[in-house]
Specification:
The complex is a heterodimer of chains A (44) and B (242). With 44 residues, chain A is mainly alpha-helical. Helices cover 95% and strands 0% of the residues of chain A. Chain A contains 1 helix and no strands. With 242 residues, chain B is mainly alpha-helical. Chain B is built from 7 helices and no strands. Chain B is elongated. The chains are: A mainly alpha (44), B mainly alpha (242). The interface between A and B is medium-sized, with 24 and 30 residues.
Chain lengths: 44, 242
Amino acid sequence: MNVLAESSNVNYVVAGYVITGVGLIAYTVSLKVRIRRQRKQLGD
Amino acid sequence: MGRTGKRVLLGVTLVALAATLLFALVVTPPRENQGGQAVRLLYLHVPAAWVAYLAFSITAIASVLWLIPRTRRAEWDLLAGASAEVGVVFTAMMLLVGSIWGRPTWGTWWEWDARLTTTAIMFFLFLGYLALRRTGATADERGKRCAIAALIAAADLPIVHFSVTWWQTLHQQGTVFNPKLDVKVNGSMAFTLVLSVFAFTLLFAYLVLERFELAQLEEGREERDLQAAIAERVRAEQAVPA
C-alpha cells in the first residue's frame, strides 16, 4: 500500500517540476522574442 | 547591466538551478514524516513564494519612489511594472505547485483556507495592476495611477504572510519565518531549501532585468510613434491651402 502511495506521490512531484520548468522556460523565451521584436521595430 | 553582465548572470542562474534540481530530486532523501516523495515540491513552492514577496515588495518600493516628487524617475515606474509581471508569474507557479502538493498531502487540490485565499487575492490584485498598466494614458498619468494601485495591492502582502498565524486553518505555519522562528527543516533539506531560494532569486533578478529592458524598448517605440504622429499631423496641416 505504501509503495503504491509513494509511486502516486512521485507523479505529483513530476507534474510539479514539469509544469514549473515549462512555465519558466516559456516566459523566458517570450521575453527574449518580445525584446528582439521591439529592437527590430526600433531599428526599422 | 550590459549584455555581458546579463549573460554571466544567466550562466550562474542556470548552474544554480541545475544544482537545485540535483539536490531536490536526487541527493536529498524524502522524509516519511513530512509527506514522503511529495516533500520534494517544497523546493519549488517555498522559493516561488519568497520570490513573489520580493517582487511585489520591489514593486511597492519603486512605486513609492515614483510618487515622491524628489525621487521621481521614469525608471521607477518601469521597474515596478517589470517586477510585478515576474512576481505574477512566480505567484501563479506557487499556487499551481501548492495545489499539486495539496492533493497528496491534504487530499484536496484547493481549499478556501486563509493562506490560499489571501494568496489568490494577491495574484488577482497584481494581475489587475498589470492590466491597468496597459490602459492608454500619458507616462505621468499611468505612473500615478499604477503606483497607487500597486500600494493598494501590496497591502495584501502582510495579510498573506501572517494569515497562517492569525487564522489557523489548513495551511501549515511558515517553514522558516514563523512566530517562534522555529526552523522546521534541517540537514540536507535545509541546505537544498537555501540553494533553491538562492537559485530562484538569481532567476528573478535575470527575468526582471530582461523585462525592464523590454519596458524601456516599448517606451522608446511609443515615443517614436508619438513623434511620427505629430510630424505627420504638422505635415498634413501645412499641406492644407490657406
